[in-house]
Amino acid sequence: MRRIAVLTSGGDAPGMNPCVRAVVRKSLYHGLEIVGVRRGFHGLVTGDFMEMKSRTVGDILQRGGTILKSARSDEFKTEEGRAKALLQIRTCEIDAVVGIGGDGTFRGLHLLSQMGLPTVAIPATIDNDIGSTEYAIGFDTACNNVLDAINKIRDTATSHERTYVIEVMGRNSGHIALAAGLAGGAESILIPEIEYDIQQVCTRIIDGARQGKSHSIVIVAEGASGAPPVSSGGTLTEGAAYRVGQQIAHITGFETRIIVLGHIQRGGAPSVRDRILATMFGAKAIDVLLAGEGSAVLGMFQNEVRAISFEEALSMKRPINMDYYELSNILSNL
Ligand code: ATP
Fold first, then answer.
1. pLDDT in tens, 80-116
2. In angstroms, rounded to a whole number, what is the distance separating the alpha carbons of residues 40 and 21?
3. pLDDT tens for residues 221-231?
4. 126, 37: one domain
5. Which of 127, 129, 140, 274 is catalytic?
6. In a shared domain, residues 7 and 126
């Protein structure tokens, strides 16, 4: 093991930069050469590489996004595309690849490892929907961003005695909605995994008002069950929050406002938790490669970073935390 490449892929997640920093500096610490790949798998296919030095990753610890940039690459999904990527890797004398991204990225990295290249996958996605880790890089910061928005919206919601419907990211998973909803005291949390009953949502809002609540907050994940999928060409005015908000206004007769947080959730300085997670993952990736253990997927289990095989990791599912859901329903509706 002499020369390693690092890439970020899929949706950007706050904490990718601290992870790149850890991968680069841990490599240099062990006397390895380290190459950055620009724009994820696209850069691997086109050979868009840059030599990484300690100073290249200076002053990035606190920045959201990724200095290596991220992209989606359809070409890498083809056999020819991956053959081109392998040729670039061999030409540049790269001995292993560390990839930071979501489950799609993991599938790409798995295929690369099957071509005989030692590959380590690090989970980074704000959705936290990767089965093989309790926490992915970016999730904590995204939840804090949502919480910050809820806190601010609450001030206006209380002053004007309104119901606010806040849409958060999560086309297929409700992890952000659940964590931010529980922490933010939302009256209802609507997620893709659980079919919602709009009548029950409205009853809670009406009961809350009768008990003297000055406002209500409903958190809706993009793909909340019953909402049209965003990927089906739905526009903002047809998204989950709009549909739920219109129904609530109609049934309760209360003034209801709708807020779609969108990409605000992804940006900003990574939280302490994400920086530490990213740093631990980045350092462990180099340890795994130096130990000659071959390819691996990293995950955080009970506060410990562990390396498991791609086969095991890709077969794992991450269920939502039902305790969060039930506790939130109890505590916010008394
Ligand atoms: P996020 O969770 O933020 O969406 P992700 O890593 O799941 O992140 P994807 O767009 O699904 O994001 O995947 C990133 C890239 O990984 C794709 O653009 C593609 O190049 C590669 N990839 C995804 N799935 C596969 C696959 N089945 N085979 C080969 N490459 C893949």
1. 999 999 999 999 999 999 999 999 999 999 999 999 9
2. 16
3. 999 976 544 44
4. yes
5. 127
6. yes
